[in-house]
Structure formats: structure tokens, C-alpha cells
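Dear colleagues,

For the upcoming journal club I promised to circulate an example of a predicted protein-ligand complex. I picked one with nicotinamide-adenine-dinucleotide because it came up in last month's discussion. The inputs are reproduced below in full, followed by the predicted structure.
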Amino acid sequence: MNLGIIGYGNRANYFVGRFFDAKRGVKLTAVADLDLDRARKRMENNRFFKQYDINIDDIHFYTDFHEMMQKEDLDGVLICTKCHQHSQNAAEAMAYGIPVFLEKPVSVTREQLKILQDGYFAHPVPTMVSFPLRYAPICRFVKKLIDDGTIGKVQQVQALNNVPYGPSYFRGFDMGFDLNGGLWPQKATHDLDYVNYLIGEEPVEICAMEAKTVFIGDHDPSLRCENCPERDTCPEGPLQQAMDWAEDDDGGFCAFSNNKNGHDSASALVRYASGIHAVYSQNFYSRKGAQKRGAVIIGYRGTIQFDFYSDQVQVWMHDGRPSATYQFHNNGKPHFGGDQAMAHNFIDIMEGKPSLAPLETGMLSALMCISAMESCSSHTFVPIRRDDWKGPEGKGCPE
Ligand SMILES: NC(=O)c1ccc[n+]([C@@H]2O[C@H](COP(=O)([O-])OP(=O)(O)OC[C@H]3O[C@@H](n4cnc5c(N)ncnc54)[C@H](O)[C@@H]3O)[C@@H](O)[C@H]2O)c1
């Protein structure tokens, strides 16, 4: 099977290893990137190329992805460009009629959602959105418990994401929040998607709140630790990190700058079609053992609690049935085993089988993130209306 990649950055260079690991005959045939020297360098330093004896000279390189799509006989294409480019790139790539793997977030504005929707309606190719949490074995197990009726109908979901590596989001001089939309589309898009997946209902409205109260300060965002007079006393500076937390951090740009973009904590409330609701909260200064990513799912007959980090599912029955704990063993694997499962599903899709995360899932989650941002500004509930991005036939984006 011949694979092409549009945008050969960090993510693509890592993810291509998942296809090699899958050992299902996928060949990296062609790559399109604006900086081909950097793309080649990434491949040279990628241990999977050595491990699987991939000859970089056999790969065809392009700077224009349209030329790649026209000249190559590809079975599928990965779109791993920057967030704000995804919708336009995908809409254009779909015109070539082959399966598309699209990185998240699929869109960061309503205008981009419309471009993506129009592109898809014009060329409805098989699609997959890069949502590793939905694919992680632990999440699919919880979905099966729910679908089997273990706790009865889901009545409420309480989801949490306390990110143990949060400061890294504030240490880049140009975090590009104006382009990538910030931490709603960066982070919450994953969690809101798996909550949608588990609940299996249409979200109808959202309200959200966000704050930036920790990673704030007076410094210019271009200040680096090495040039900062506070470098030895700053809690995010390399010395304090090494002495207090035994963390290896070489500094970087200032985490306490006057860059007002984004948030370091945020929460959303989502109502679903049957009237049930979910709450989701994310935090970027919680660390170490306080890390948590998962949810409590409550029905009348029982409660399921799961956490990606501890890789554990607990089921408490509210009636006389016994409770149970299930320990998974995927925590060491990238995205809790979700990345490998995604590579397999994309190979399935190229073979004509269904997608577990079709474009609709990415568009819905993106719409929820955009609506959450609007709610943060307007201090109101925002309806999640797919009519806003329905095509001329009046349908939502089909699965
Ligand atoms: N699903 C996940 O869990 C996950 C994890 C990490 C990153 N991501 C997403 O992956 C995407 C890429 O992230 P990254 O860290 O690899 O970024 P990156 O900047 O390293 O890579 C982007 C690449 O796209 C190339 N590019 C830009 N415009 C192009 C064009 N018109 N044609 C071809 N190539 C073009 C750039 O030269 C660059 O090499 C981001 O949207 C990010 O949110 C997703």
C-alpha cells in the first residue's frame, strides 16, 4: 500500500513509525513539505527508518502537495500540517479521491469548518481524524461496557484532564495561539471527542469558562531563561526544576510572560440531546502524580471510572452485582496505545473498511471547541448547531 504525507513535521515523522510497526505492507511512497531538507533530516534521525531498513532515497519528495497527489498512485494520504491549515489542505486533498487521515484539530474557526464541509461534500472520500484517545484500548473497553448496558443509560459524565506537562505550552515564544486556536482546539478537542463517543448522543449546547492566572507575568515572551535575571529562582527555571523536582528542563522561553493568549485552566458544560449533561475540565499547572485524564460515567445502575494514566477501569454496581477493577497495560505506549490502533484503522480504511473516527467526529468536536471559546467571551450558552455547517443537500457531514 502506498502512503503519502502532506506536512512532514514532528507528528508525521513520529506517526509514520506506527505504520512501519503495523507490518501490514504500508510503504511511505511520497512526502510533500515546504522544507524538504528538514523533512529528510527528520527521517535520517528517525530510528524506525533504520529499524525497518527504509531507504530515504526511495521516497519521492515534493514541495507542492498537488503535484504529489497528481503524479503518485497513492492509496491514502496523511495531512499533518499546522492546525490552521488542516481544513483547507484536506478540502483540496479530498479532490484526489483517496482516503484522508486528518490531524486534529480539523478546524479552528467556523470559516474553516465551512471550507472543510464544502470540500467533503464535493468529494466524500473515506476519512479518519487523528483522535488517539477514542482509539485507546481502555476507551474502547469502556465504550463496550456502556454499550453492553453495564450501568444502564449514561446519565452524567464528569471528565478531567490535569496535564502533567502543561508548562511546555507556555514556553514557546510563538505559541501561535492566534493561529492554532489555543488549548480548546489543541487539547479539549480530544477529550470532548471521546466523551461524545462514549455517550453516543448529539451535543446540543455548551457553556464554558477559562482563566489564565498562573502562567502570567511581566516578561516579554521572547525572553529566554538563559538571559533572565530570575533564572535561578524562578520555579520554571532550569535550576529550580533540577533542584526541587529533579526535572530536566533546559529552560526555553519565559512561562511567566505578558502574553495574554490562551488559558491555563478551563471548564465546559455540555448538554446532550436526551437532556443529560457532561462536564469537562482541563488544567495546565497540575503535575506528577496529580496527572489525570479520564472520566466518571454514571448511570442509574452503576458507575464507571477510568483514567488513561493509571490505565485502570473501575466499575461499581449500584445494585447487588459485584464491582470490578480492570488493569490495562498501555500506559507506556504513545497515546495509551491509541496511536498504534489508529495506524491499523487507517490501513483498514485504505482496504475499504469503516473508520472509527470519520470526519464528522472531528468536525463536531471542533465545533464544540469553537463554541466553547465563543461562550468564554460571551458568557452565554452557545447552541451546537450542525445546521451552521450543513451542505446544500441539508445534511450534516455523513459518517
Ligand atoms: N493527534 C495528536 O495527538 C497530535 C499530536 C501531536 C501533534 N498533532 C497535530 O499535528 C499537527 C502537526 O504538528 P507538528 O508538531 O508535526 O508540526 P510541525 O510544524 O513540526 O509540522 C508541520 C509541517 O507542515 C509543513 N507544511 C506547512 N505548510 C505546508 C504545505 N502547504 N504543504 C506541505 N507541507 C507544509 C511544515 O513545513 C512542517 O514540516 C498539528 O496540527 C498538531 O496539532 C496531533
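Two points we might discuss: The pocket of nicotinamide-adenine-dinucleotide is lined by residues 6-12, 32-35, 65, 80-83, 85, 103-104, 130, 132, 335 (CB under 6 Å). The chain is about 35% helix and 20% strand.

See you all on Thursday,
B. R.
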